[in-house]
Amino acid sequence: MQDNWKIRSVYSLLLNRYGFLNWWPAETKDEVVIGTILTQNTSWSNVEKCIKNLKKKNICSLSAISSLDPKELAPIIRSSGFYNQKSKRLVDISHIITERYSTMEKMSEQPVDELELFLKNIKGVGRETMDSILSYALQKPVFVVDKYTMRIFSRTGITGDSTPIDAIKGLVYENLGNDGDMLRNLHAMLVYLGKDHCKTKPLCAECPVKSVCNYFITAGP
Hints:
One of its GO terms (biological process) is base-excision repair. This is Endonuclease III domain-containing protein. Keywords: 4Fe-4S, Endonuclease, Hydrolase, Iron, Iron-sulfur, Metal-binding, Nuclease. It comes from Oxyplasma meridianum. By secondary structure, this protein is mostly helical. The protein contains 13 helices and no strands. The protein is globular, with a radius of gyration of 18 Å.
């Protein structure tokens, strides 16, 4: 673990570039949950096509999806890739959530610890998906760690190459507190930075955080 003070600097630099992004792009809490499953191993543009298809058929809700046969759902979400697997996961999670909590609003009233225990036992809900649901659908103060977070934090020197997810999250909470809006915006800005500049082969010249980035300082422009 190194240079953890940089989290605040990175947040400030990114905020200056991107501002408040109001991510996750969704009209309802149900839509967020649906999106977290659809976005696994695919691009967001493909997810948007699926969401549009679901809305056209008036089934973009957990209650509607829970009553479907996965075989009915699969062709509707085809553009997301792995659509047979995802259709089953979507039907399962929709059924399990609606059976237990009825609505996302009622679910959001529960404490984070209970929700984590509930979500992590649902097949197809990994750590990133669970944290995305907690943060964006249920509005809990949870930071989502994804591949962009790990790449950017490692290159800037905030963390090491193999820092565990729990340690990364702890470091973020230590430096930024438990302001849900700030945590959500940091994650969103890191996604944008990862797509715009901190790619597998980085484009450092116009990167907003290059002034505090170990990779740029060491490798040069």
